[in-house]
Design a protein that fits this description.
Number of helices: 2
Low-confidence stretches: none
Order of helices and strands: HH
Shape: globular
Number of strands: 0
Structural class: mainly alpha
Amino acid sequence: GGVLRTLLEGIAVAAVLLSPAMPETSKKIAAQLDLADKILFSKLPTVSNSIFSTGHTLNSPAPLFPKQEK
């Protein structure tokens, strides 16, 4: 559980860091992590204050960007 939690927290931090440049994509990432109501895009989560509790479930994955047709 520790490795996956660390990975998910890294993705959550990336969503916060991307939010100024890609706000809609950041919101999609937060929604897929089931953190849409927990992530404050003005404040980074810290390692000492984990945003993922034991038993946290993720929402269904979905593409972040539409497929580009040739």
